[in-house]
Amino acid sequence: MLENIVTSPCLVNMSVGYENFTFEQVIKELLPDFILPITGFTIIGHVIQFNLKTEALPYRHIIGQVALDKIPNIRTVIHKAANIESAYRTFEMELLAGAPDYITSMRENSVTLHLDISKVYCNPRLGTEHTRVVNSLRPPLPINDPFLTPRPIPGDRVVVYDVFAGIGPFSIPAGRAGCHVLANDLNPDSFIWLKKNVAQNSSRKRPLKNIVCYNMDGREFIREILLPHYRKYGNSDTTESADCDSISLSIDRFVVIMNLPQLAIDFLDAFVPPLNCIKSSNIITDNSVTANLNDSSVIRQKFIKPLYIYCYCFMRRNIESEQTIKIRLAKALNTNMTDLFQFINSITNDETVDNMNNEQINDKCFIRNWHYRFVRNVAPYKDMYCAEFELYLPKLWLFYDYSSPTVKRSRTTENELIE
C-alpha cells in the first residue's frame, strides 16, 4: 500500500468525460465562437425556459439536450419563440428537449403556486418584488411614545385590489397576511389556477376565505367591483370579509396593485367616469350616502382615505424618464400635471385634505407621496419600474354609478372550484 502513495511531482493519467463538465462548459465547446455564452434562462419547477437570440436558434435542440443533462431536476426545456403579444400575457413556445409536461409549480413567500406554463403568465424573477410589496401592505401604526416599538397594521384592516392577479403571487401571500383580497385576471386559465392556488394554500388554521377571485377585463373589474367596494367601505368604519361574514372594524388602507407593465397606466382611466354623462341620473341615489352630497366638510371626513397604488410600467432607457410616466398618468386620469401633482410632496396626514376647498374636492383628483423606483432590467434599453402613490378621487367620481345592465356577469369563486 505504501509504495502507491505519491510523494513527489509526477504524471498521472485521468479520464475526463461529458459528465465532468458543467452546462456552460459544454455549450462553450459545442457552439461556434461567434455565439455569445448562453447564460440567461428561467427555471419554474421542472421547466427551464430559454429566450435564445437569433444566431443561437440553429443550435437550440443541442442547447436543450445539454440543459436536460446538466441542470438538476429539469424534465422540460422550452424556448420562448415570440414576445408576449396576447391579451392573456401568454407567449408562443417551442419544446427543445424532454417531455411536454407544462404543468409545474414554484414556491415563493411561503406559498406554492401551481400553473400550466403554456397557458398562463408567470415570472419567477419578480419574486423579490412580490415579497417587497406584500411586506409593505401593513406599515407600522404611528405612535407617540418613543419607547414603544411600532406594530404593523393588522391584516384585516387592509383591503387589496389585485387588478391583474395572474396565478396569485401578490394576492395569496396578502391573503395569508390577513388582508381582504379581491383578485382579478382576464385569462380564464389564470382564473382557474388562481382559484386552485387559493384552495391549495388554505388550511384549517388559514382558510383564506378572505380572498375572492374574479375573471374580468381589468377596466370592468375597476368599475364594477373595485370602485363600488371602495365607495361602500372607504367612507365607513365597518366592512365585511370576502366570504361575506360581517366584521366590525376600521379599514386603514385600500391598496391597488396593477402589475401589467405594458398597459397598467392606461387602465387608470377606468377610475374616471365619462364626465359628459355625470348628471342626476348617474349619481348614486342612496339617501344615506347622498344626503350630504354638497356638504364638503362631510365628504372630507368620509373620503380622506386614499387608494394606495402600485402601478408597474416599462420605460425605454435614455429615451423616457419619470416625467414621461407622470404625463401618461395625468392623461389617463383626464387631468393636468399641475392639478394632479400639486400636493405631491405634502406631509402624510389629512391636514392638506381638510384645508381643501369644495371645488377641489368635487372636481379634481390628486396624488400624494409619489415614489418611483426601478424594479428590474427587462431587455437592452428597456427597464421595469413601479410608480407608488396615494390617489385621491374627487367626490363626483366616487358617487358616479358605473354599473350597467349590459356588462357581462363576472366569474367569481362561487363557480365550481377545482379540487
TrEMBL record:
Keywords: Cytoplasm, Kinase, Methyltransferase, Mitochondrion, Nucleus, S-adenosyl-L-methionine, Transferase, tRNA processing
Sequence positions that bind S-adenosyl-L-methionine: H130, D185, L186, D217, G218, N259
Function: Specifically methylates the N1 position of guanosine-37 in various cytoplasmic and mitochondrial tRNAs. Methylation is not dependent on the nature of the nucleoside 5' of the target nucleoside. This is the first step in the biosynthesis of wybutosine (yW), a modified base adjacent to the anticodon of tRNAs and required for accurate decoding. Involved in mitochondrial tRNA methylation. Specifically methylates the N1 position of guanosine-37 in various tRNAs. Methylation is not dependent on the nature of the nucleoside 5' of the target nucleoside. This is the first step in the biosynthesis of wybutosine (yW), a modified base adjacent to the anticodon of tRNAs and required for accurate decoding.
Self-association and partners: Monomer.
The organism's place on the tree of life at top rank: Eukaryota
Predominant place of localization: mitochondrion
Protein name according to UniProt: tRNA (guanine(37)-N1)-methyltransferase
One Pfam family, short name: TRM5-TYW2_MTfase
The UniProt record lists the keyword Signal: no
One cellular-component annotation, GO: nucleus
Enzyme Commission number: 2.1.1.228
Domain SAM-dependent methyltransferase TRM5/TYW2-type per the UniProt entry, residue ranges: 41-393
Organism: Schistosoma haematobium
